[in-house]
Structure formats: C-alpha cells, structure tokens
Amino acid sequence: MATTSQPLRGKTTCKKIFWAVFPHACFILSLVIYAFLGALMFSHIEGTREVTVSEEYRTFLQNLMHLARKLSDNVTENEEFNDDIRELFNTADPVWFINPEERWSFFGSLFFCCTVFTTVGYGNTYPVTRIGKYLCMLYALFGIPLMFLVLTDMGDILATVLSKCYNEFRKLQSKILASKLCSGSTCSKRNELKSRAQSKIVINEPLTIMEVLRSQPGVKRRPVKYRNVELFEMLIARENENTQPARNRSMERWSSCPELAREKTVSRVIENFDKIGKELEKLDVPIVLMVLVIFVYISCAAAILPNWEKNMDFQEAFYFCFITLTTIGFGDTKLEHPKFFLFFSLYIIIGMEIVFIAFKLGQDRLIVLYKKVISFCAEKNMTSKKIYPK
Asked: Could you list the residue ranges that cross the membrane (predicted)?
C-alpha cells in the first residue's frame, strides 16, 4: 500500500504544480506567439514592398548635385554653404536610404513588434505602407493589453518574492536587535515565563470525548451491561474522523470520484485567474528599496550592453536602459545589433515589471500624502471657524 501511495502522491503534486504554473505560462506563451505572428506579418508586408523613387527624392538628389558642383577648398569654410548642406539633409527621409529586406527581416520585425506592444516606440523603425500602418494600429490595440496583463501577472510573483524577502529581513533584524539588547538575567526570566505559559496552555487543552466520559461518575458507577456500546463506538468513530487531516479526506473523495477532483482543480485555476493583481495591491515595501533595486538592475545591464553595442559606454547604456524600461523611447540612442537585443527581451519584461511596481508604490505614497494634506487643510479650516465665528 505504501509503494502504490507514493506514486499517486507524486502524480498529484505534479498536477498541482502544473495547474499552479499554468496561468502564468499561458500568458507568457500567448505573448511570445503574438510577437512571432506579428514579426511574420510585418516582415511579409513591409519587407516585400516595392521601392519607388519619389519626386522628393529626385529633388533632393538635384539639390545635392547642385551644391556638390559649387564645392571647393575655400567653400568649406563658408557658413552659408554649411547651412545649406544642413538644411538639405534635414529634408531627407531615412526611408530613401534603407533596404526594406534588410530592415524588415524576421528579427528586425520581431524587434519592431516588441517596441510596439511594450509602448517603447524608438522611432527608427516604423511602417511605411498604408496596410502596414493600419495593421500596426490593430496589432497595438490587442498587444498592449496583453503586455499589461503579463506585467500584472508577473508583478504578483515579484511582489510576493519582494515582500517575503523584506519580511524575512525584518525578522532577522529584529532577532539581532533582541539578542543585543537582551541580557542574561532578563533572558532567563523571559524563558521561565514562556515555559510557564506553555505549561498552562498544555494543562488547559480541551478534553476528548473518551476522557469526558471516563471523568463522569455516573458512567463509572453504572454497570457495563447498561451502557450504550453502539453509541459510544459511534462517538469514538466520529471523533477519529474529525481528528483526521482534511487532505486525507479530500484524497479519499478524489480517489472515489475523479470528477470532483477535476472540478476542484478547474475551480482553483479559475480562482488563480481572478486573483491577478491582488498580491501587487498588498505589497508594502519602502520606496527607497525599490529605487535601489532599479538602480542595481539597470547598472547590471549597462555593464553588459557595451560588449554588444560598441558605440555605447556605461553612461549611454544606462540612459538607454532607463529610457527603455520606463517606456519613454526617445530614439536618440539607436541599436546597431537588434538581434542581440532580442535576447535581452526577457530583461526588458522583468525590468518593466520592477519599474511598474515602483510606480505603483510611488502612486500609493502620493495618494497617502494627498490625503494627509487634505485632512490637514480641513482640520485647519474647522479650527479657524471655531475660533473666529461669523
């Protein structure tokens, strides 16, 4: 019996782990599939578009040739010539000098999709065709809520981890302070008081049905043949049934009726979907701790990113990561190798979750501050009315 119960317990624990992880994996997998489908769509639409020479491009080339003919060794020092060159290149469209097949490859399109549903939008890659623009709006309409759902779901996990770590740190800190403040005599007195309290608690534990029946004098004096043996056995059986752990009784019901187990697992999965965002609402850690976590998180990426992007140093990479994680995305700092940065997408999602938690904590602190200011102003107004009545 023991050998057969162990595999059953292993299967049940595996099923519980699977159904616990299933909602989180479902969200992440749906986001990954959505990004890959968008990459295939935009690479097909924007990558295969026909490159036509527009009238603006022809005018740009004519003006450039006109300025090139005037070029000489002395003209480079002329400020008017430099202004004309700068004005001419400001009118140039970057699309004229881009090969669509290279820019809108699968990895380039995947990078573009990530910038769309993360609301970063660097601006260096954007759809040119009319169909691509319409599909980009439709893609963002469904992708941004899905991304926010993933951020909220993963934010619950990070919030749980942060709260547990912070609580354990506070417990350890309180233990260290208690050990420093506690002397030998006071500690011995506290231990004696604890032992006395525990002994009192043990003495005052409730009696079982058998002990109550044995303590009754009528039961002891009455002959054995006049006792209701069946009722006594039923009481003992009910007592044993109540003292059994609930897990064993649920396992017995599940083994006798598997449909109940399936309905219970399905209801638990649905409850997990309903609890999205609850842990994030309960999170209460210092805002300074979150700022420190963000600083360390961005610093680690800023130290790694210059190995991929040679045009960046630590400060430029730090600025780029901050602009990305806060979804500002000016586009002033561009990437030369978006393929390498795609492997950095997991870093972006986790970082956006950390920043989202920090913004949520900052929002809660601002609400508390506004409440205090309003209550203070209201109390001051009430006191002024009492002092100076009309």
From this structure: 17-42, 104-122, 134-152, 285-305, 317-335, 341-362
User: What SS3 class is residue 27?
Assistant: helix
| pLDDT score recorded for residue 31 | 92
Q: Do domains 18-164 and 282-385 have the same CATH topology?
A: yes
Q: How far apart are CA 347 and CA 158, in angstroms?
A: 14
Pick the CATH number of 282-385 from 3.60.15.10, 2.30.30.100, 3.30.1490.20, 1.10.287.70: 1.10.287.70
Inter-residue contact 292 to 369 (CB < 8 Å) = no
Three-class DSSP category at 43: helix
Question: pTM of this prediction?
Answer: 0.65
- What CA–CA distance (Å, rounded) separates 85 from 199? 93
pLDDT digits (tens, 9 = 90+) for 250-292: 444 444 455 545 556 666 666 666 667 677 777 778 888 889 9
Query: b/e for 211-245, b at 16 or more Cβ within 10 A?
Result: eebeeeeeeeeeeeeeeeeeeeeebeeeeeeeeee
Q: What percent of the chain has pLDDT over 90?
A: 15
* pLDDT-derived band at 134, boundaries 50, 70, 90: very high
At the topology level, CATH places domain 18-164 in Helix Hairpins (1.10.287)
Distance between CA atoms of residues 159 and 169, nearest Å:
15
Please check whether residue 325 is in contact with residue 352, taking contact to mean a CB–CB distance below 8 angstroms. yes
- DSSP 3-state assignment of 344? coil
